Amino acid sequence: MSTVDMNTGAAPTGGAGPRRRGSVVPPVSGCVLLTLVLFALFAPFLAPHPANAPIGVPYAMPGDVGVLGTDYLGRDLLSRILAGGRSLVLVAAACTFTAGLLGTALGLMAGYRRGLVDAVIMRVVDLLLILPPLVVLLVLTSGAERGPRMLIPVIMISASPYVARVVRTATLDVARSSYVEAAVLRGEKARAILVREILPNVAGPVLAITGLLMIYAIFVVASASFLGVGIQPPAADWSLMIKEGMPAITLNAWPVIFPAACIVVLAVAVNIFAEGLHRRIAGGRAGRRGA
Amino acid sequence: MSTPLVVEGLRVADHAGRVIVEDVSFSIAAGQSVGIVGESGSGKTTMALALLGWARNGVRLVAGSVQVSGVELVGRPEEAVRKARGRLVSYVPQAPAAALNPSMRVGRQVAETVVGLSPDERAERVRQTFELVELPSDAEFQRRYPHELSGGQQQRVGLAMALVNRPRVLVLDEPTTGLDVITQEAVLAEVDRLRAELAIAVVSISHDLALVAKHTERVIVMHNGRMVEQGDSHTVLANPEHPYTRSLVAAVVDHRAAAESRVADGTRPESGTAARERPPLLSVRDLHAGHGTRRGRVVAAEGITFELRAGECLAVVGQSGSGKTTIARSVVGLHQPDRGSILLDGAPLASRADRRSRDQLRRVQYVFQDPFASLNPRRTVLDSVVRPLGVFKGVRGAEAEDQARRLLDRVRLRPELADAFPGELSGGECQRVAIARALAAAPDLLVCDEITSALDVSVQSSVLDLVNELRRDLGLALLFISHDLGVVSTVAEHVLVLERGQCREFGPVHDVLGTPGHEYTRRLVAAAPSLSAALVRAVPAAPGPGAADITEVLQ
Question: What is the pTM of this model?
């Protein structure tokens, strides 16, 4: 996993707050990510055509009709690409955020309280870990409504155990620190200790795992939509577009390639950005052990 | 026989061009022992590693030469240098526990480092080496894992690994920092014996001048990467010439010297019987405490009873594992005692901190051992001091910042550091912030747990001065946990000697340390490094084949 960074390259000079010579990758990926997110949110307004109205023959090649051609109903591919990121990014972000929140809370509680609380939380977390999210989705949606409203709770529950495990381990470590004991000796409430003393010091691992989580969420949302239990047609959505383009992939691959490429770029940008963020935070903290 | 180690014009710099070690030259004869002293950041460890032709990541040996038995180690290809390491020159790192592989049995670990012997010879060599460092050499012991050994045994395994190839030069990097005084003395005596027996040259890196005076013949004083003084250990440390060496020597707190000077000028801090009649601020009665482990309960305190009055300082001394810290943690409420009572001004304190009242918490403040770990790395210095002001006194906003800045000034921290993060501070500065944070609560009792053990000597003495001054000005009572008798003799009036959780001796510091009544105290006092005593004592002779050419090399 690319996001694991053990801070081994401690600055050779000792000294205070050494700044690692920053790679250009995180800023660039940050820009890519920001552009993509802004794009996903606002691009529908830039679309030359309505996303759901046919503008010509189906499966037109790029340049023939519209800039990127048309899909199986003759709708403008460019307009659909521009519109199709919004649902994926929003749903994945919502899943990541809620899963991160729930997992962090569980991990902090388990790691700080230890004992029975820890045992109970972690056993529940272990149970959740074995639930395959797509199967759960398929089962749930067979009876209930389909769509993104179902996706968010399922992904939140299936992803939060990963966060909880990482946060718990980091918390166990931090909770033994003298500064946490100092807070206990001030008579601070558990919530104040968790929020003020522990949370800022486990933020690095949380961010690292959140990057992976976002990719996981993108993957599950896309898979669910592809399987027909996620985002529903006729919405313009990258994962849905892949599904819609599949039957005719030998005739015209572009309706599959463009949305697939968009998903890949999004996932890679998210990962690199999260890793950069994590390095920056971990690097700032590693600055203290000099020679 | 060629000289084991010759260093000439050695210069080490990092890739940014900052020079870490500059123009160091010296040589050592076989069987001779050289101490390298200096504060952290003076380039000691970098130089020790350079003696093995090695430099940490990002650091390079820029110029000069290091010759071990005539083999040049600087500027040679890594392959060639590696052949010399372990065979001609070997290294014993600072923390033995961290240097041993925790998942490998110690016998195999030592055997792995043997070069070029048949399996039978190798096993024999390992056995001999274990005997050499006075470890049990039987198969059962060799099959143990590092965590099954004591700290002293771990350090001996480290020594065995370094000696198994019978090198000509042994480099020891702060070899006894993690060990308590009695074990430390035993390990160093061991090194002295091996040096004589095997006629190896020993380079010891240390910040402890007393140890250097006692166990080395020559000393090199490093400051900012340069050698500022070198010569015979006793001469240099008894009559330091360079101002830096003088300041180092002056900063040493020496339990023997301190006891003598107190008696001499009659300034014994305790104020006679009047003080005895005041009611005690803290009284601990029949305290029993322990730690549950897999093998049963380890006793850390057994029937400990003492009293502490306002303005007094009581020191608790003993080896590591004697229960000092557990007693301190019980007093502040971080460790739950099994039995016994702790009273503050006659009122019993709950055994857990979260059951004590705000005011009780405020009156007893704790200063932690590791200055780096005691401050939240994510909060600024000012934040850390403002927080207790808010919690204990309800002071907030600009008023709290103002008070916090005054407190930081009180502990003599540079004002511009108020907005710094702990990672940007030195150990001594962190410890000052921790003291300021404790003072913010306006406590009556300060519990100090080994507050100077992580600090350099000169920093240590300035922190002790601060503690003494605060005690005088604010009338604080102090419960002072330390393993360092020198430190204890400069701050405390009374001392409690602890061995395996039991109180062995209790009384005024100069009585107990000057004329120890209990056998254990005597051992502790005898083993405690004392610069003045080491300088008085005769030079430990280093017989052996190389002894004759010492004088020649000294030229």
Answer: 0.75
Kindly report, residue by residue over B73-84, the tens digit of the pLDDT.
Answer: 888 888 888 888
List, for residues B309-331, the tens digit of each pLDDT value. 988 899 999 887 788 888 999 99
User: Up-side HSE of residue B42: CA atoms within 13 Å toward CB?
Assistant: 21
Query: What are phi and psi for residue A116, nearest 5 degrees?
Result: -65, -45
Between β-strands B477-481 and B313-317, what pairing exists: parallel, antiparallel or unpaired?
parallel
Contacts of B423 in chain A (CB under 8 A): 16-17, 284-285, 287-288
CB B11 within 8 A of CB B536: no
User: Locate tokens 């001048």: which residue?
Assistant: B209
| Contact of B212 with B27, CB cutoff 8 Å | no
How many angstroms separate the CA atoms of B462 and B314, rounded?
20
Please tell me the distance in Å from A210's CA to the nearest CA on chain B. Answer: 20
Q: In B, residues 282-311, which contact A (CB 8 Å cutoff)?
A: none
Confidence of residue B269 (pLDDT cuts 50, 70, 90): very low
User: Tokens 């557990």 correspond to what residue?
Assistant: B326
| C-beta separation of A225 from A231 below 8 A | yes
Residues 28-57 of A with CB under 8 A from B: none
Q: Which long-range contacts (CB under 8 A, 24 or more apart) does B518-527 make?
A: B521/B497, B523/B182, B524/B181, B524/B182, B524/B317, B524/B318, B524/B319, B524/B485, B524/B497, B525/B255, B525/B485, B526/B185, B527/B181, B527/B182, B527/B184, B527/B185
DSSP assignment, residue B280?
Answer: P
Residue of A17, A182, A290 with shortest CB distance to B374: A182
Contact B302, B502 (CB under 8 A): yes
For B30-112, list the strands marked E by DSSP: 33-37, 59-68, 71-72, 89-92
Distances (CA, A) of B25 to B4, B6, B63, B554: 14, 8, 12, 12
Show residues of chain B in contact with A284, CB under 8 Å.
Answer: 423
Residues from chain B that touch A9, judged by Cβ atoms under 8 A, are: 57
How confident is the prediction for chain B on average, in pLDDT? 84
Q: Which alpha helices (DSSP H) does B20-101 contain, by range?
A: 44-50, 78-84, 96-99
pLDDT tier at B437 (50, 70, 90 boundaries)? very high
- Cα B309 vs. chain centroid, distance in angstroms? 30
Cβ neighbour number for residue B436 with a 10 Å cutoff: 24
What ipTM goes with this model?
Answer: 0.72
* Residue B358 sits at the chain A interface (C-beta within 8 Å): yes
